[in-house]
Amino acid sequence: MLRSLCFLALCLAAVLPARAQAACAPGTPCYALCPQVAEEQYYAAAAAGLRYLFNGEGSWLFATQLDLRSDFRLDTEAMRGMTRLADAFRRAGTQVVIVYLPPRGLVHHDRFDHASYDPKVALASYRAALAQLRAAGYIVPDLSTLVPDRDGDFFQRRDHHWQTAGARKTAALVATAVRALPVYAQMPRQAFQTERTGITGKYGTLATVAGRICDMRFPRQFFETWTTLPGALDEAALFGDANASEAEVMLIGTSNSKGKIDYNFAGFLQSELGVAVENRALRGGGYNGALEQLLVEGRFASKPPKILVWELPSQYDLDLPMFYRQAVPMLTGACRGKPLLTGRAALSAELIEDVINNGRGGVITPLVARRTALKLRFSDPSVNVFFLDVTYMNGDHEQVKVERHPYVKHDGTFLIELPRTGPLATETVFSAGVRLAHPPAKPVFVDAEACTHDAS
Asked: Is the distance from CB of 310 to CB of 99 less than 8 angstroms?
C-alpha cells in the first residue's frame, strides 16, 4: 500500500499541471479545494499516494489514501515475514524496537470530519497491529497514547512528515521502552545536549499537489528546529568508554528520521537515552529500503547493533514476500560456504536464461526448496529488478519478480530464499533462470550459486 509515497518528496515535480482555480473571495486567503481533487485523473503517478485531497480544519489538508486507513492488521504473509525477520535478528544478538507511527488522520482526527472515517474503529485496529508486532517478537512502544494530539503539532498540516515536536514526543516513548531492556543497562552512557537552533518552513507535499491541481497557494508552515550534540559526560554514569556505545544503538527508517529537513529524531533519542545512536535511515526508502541498505553493504554482519530502532510509518502493509526472502538469508549469512551448484549466463529482457541446472551430466543434487537459497551476482550493479523462474522436478514452476529498492546502493549481489512454505517447499529444484526486467544498455552477466540454507 502506498509504495509510491516513498518517492513522493523527490518526484512531485511530475504531478499534473494546474487544472482549476478554487472559488474564493478576491483578496482573501483561500484554502478551499477545487472539485477536481476528487477525480483520479488529476493525480499523476508521483502523487498517487496522496489521493484524494480534502480540506480539514483551517488550513489543514488530508488525503483519503494516506490518512484514512482504518485496518492496520497484518495479514498472514506479513506476519510470517515479520516473525522470521525478528527471529533472524534475535539470533544475530539484536533486539528490534519498531516505531509503528500512527497515520495523520488518526493522530489528528479532531482536525477534520469525513463521513467514511471512524477514528474509534481505526484506533482499535491500530492497537491490534501493535499487539501483532509484539507477538512477532518486537519491542513496540504504545504510540496510541498520542491519539489524538490535542496540541496539533505532531504532523505537519499539509505534509506527510511529522514536525520536530512529533519526533520529540515519539522519542520519549521509544526511550521508555528501550530503558526497560536489560541490554540497555549494560551500555556506557554519554551526555547529549539538545538545543533549539531556530525555525524552518515547509510548503508541504499535500499543498504542492493541491496547488498543481487547483492553481492555488497555501502558506508555508513553520516549526522549531533542534540540534543534538555530545555534551559533558555524566559523572553518575562513568563506567567504561562512552565511545563504545556508538554502534550499539542504530536507527533505520524513512525521511522522518533522515530527510531533506532534519526533524532530529535520532538526536532526541540520544538525549533521552544517553547513548549514541547511529542514524542509518534512508530518505525515500519506504519501510524496507533502509534495512536493505544496511544488510547489502555488510555493515550489520560486521558489527550488529545490540538495539535496532526501526521507524516505520503505518501506511505500509508490510506484505512484500520477496523482501523477507532476501532479508532473512542476508541476516543469517546464507551462501557463505561452498555452493552445491554454480552457473553463469548472459542476460536479456526477452528470454529466461538458465543459471542453475540440476540435470547437467545426469547428476541430480538434492536441492529441496525449503533448504535452498540462490546467490546471484550481476555484472551491472544498477540491476534492481529482474524475474526469477524456478522449475521443480515435478514440473511445477515458480515465477517471481525480485526487486530491491531503487535507492539502495549495492554491488549487484542478491540472496534469495526458495519457498519455505506451501506446496513447493518440499520439491526438488531442477533449474533456475533469470530474465531482466528492462533491456540492458550494455551486456549483463550473472554468476549464480545454489546453496543450503537452513534458517527457520
From this structure: yes
pLDDT of residue 16: 41
**CA 185 to CA 179: how far, in whole Å?**
7
CATH number of 336-452: 2.60.120.1380
| Lookup: cell for 449 | 550459486
Q: Residue 395: exposed, middle, or buried by beta-carbon count in 10 A (0-12, 13-18, 19+)? A: exposed
Residue 44's pLDDT band, with cuts at 50, 70 and 90, is confident
Distance from C-alpha of 286 to C-alpha of 349, rounded to nearest angstrom:
27
Q: What's the angle, vertex CA 150, arms to CA 274 and CA 221, rounded to 5?
A: 80
For the residues of 207-262, what is the DSSP string, one character each? Answer: HHHHHHHH---PPPEEEEEEEEEE----GGG--S-GGGGTTTEEEE-STTTSSSS-
Which residue has cell 532473512? 328
SS3 192: strand
Compute the distance between CA of residue 432 and CA of residue 263 in angstroms, rounded to an integer.
45
User: What does the pLDDT average to over 318-333?
Assistant: 93
Which of 41, 40, 101 is closest to 65 using CA atoms? 40
pLDDT in tens, 397-413: 999 999 999 999 999 99
Would you list the domain boundaries of the chain? 70-200+217-327, 336-452
SS (H, E, C) 30-52: CCCCCHHHHCHHHCCHHHHHHCC
Q: Which residues are catalytic?
A: 159, 161, 255
- What digits encode the pLDDT tens for the residues 122-151? 999 999 999 999 999 999 999 999 999 999
Cβ pair 167, 200 in contact under 8 A = no
More confident residue, 247 or 35: 35
Q: Report DSSP letters for 58-126, one per residue.
A: TT-EEEHHHH--------HHHHHHHHHHHHHHHHTT-EEEEEEEPPHHHHTGGG---TT--HHHHHHHH
Give, as one character, the DSSP assignment of residue 155.
B
CA distance 48 to 65: 9
Residues of the chain with pLDDT > 70, as a percent, come to 89
- Please tell me the predicted confidence (pLDDT) of residue 49: 86
How would residue 17 be classed by pLDDT, with cut points 50, 70 and 90? very low
Residue 25 pLDDT = 53
